[in-house]
Amino acid sequence: MSNEIISKENQVYRKPALMNDTPMHYCPGCSHGVVHKLVAEVIEEMGMEDKSVGVCPVGCAVFAYRYLDIDWQEAAHGRAPAVASAIKRCWNDRLVFTYQGDGDLACIGTCETIHALNRGENITIIFINNAIYGMTGGQMAPTTLIGQKTSTCPYGRTPEIHGYPLKVTEIAATLEGTCYVTRQSVETVAAIRSAKKAIRKAFEASMAGKGSSLVEIVSTCNSGWKMSPVKANKWMQENMFKFYPKGDLKDNTNESQIK
User: Fold this and answer.
1) What is the sign, positive or negative, of the torsion defined by CA atoms of 198, 89, 17, 63?
2) What top-level class would CATH report for the domain 26-251?
3) Is residue 11 predicted with pLDDT exceeding 60?
4) Does the predicted TM-score (pTM) go above 0.90?
């Protein structure tokens, strides 16, 4: 292969400078790697490389600190919003965000999530929703769809036994402290571009002191769903998007500062 073919200007994918060379542990087809790239790109474009602090708890997101060369703080399971609130209050000039899965955010950390958003903490919560506990064995999560099979509901989720899926993003949009609430995905180029714009808007709103932002990324877990990456994306488009429709649910970023 000639040097011209593999030269920098001919590369389709260019890794952001903030992403290091540590091999990712994510399963093939997982959405986490794409979202990591978007977060890195936005931080670089904002010039916040030395003033960003990410907080990640237990779950597939727990090793995010291995891949992005910014400051990170680990948090107990579900407690990332509480830790992020403390960091932002101590260092108001920092870009502070959490990176959480649906089991962590919508179940174990429901209290911390809802109250941080309701207080209007100037942080961004990035919420990866793949409707399952991906890291710990594929158990049912609060976001698991009705009829969806997991290791703890092998015959499918039923509302009579398991209750209904929880729409955390819709709840967040009703809270006084939130300024920007959106639901995105990263399964196509167009979706990736939209998700990046949403992350940028959320980060800018937090730095402007406008309140809390929640960016949900509807994602796949092809390993937990027992599907190929291609089939998982199709299943997500045909099923997840019906119950979790994409788009902005709340956008007050052009209004005056909340605090």
Assistant:
1) negative
2) alpha beta
3) no
4) yes
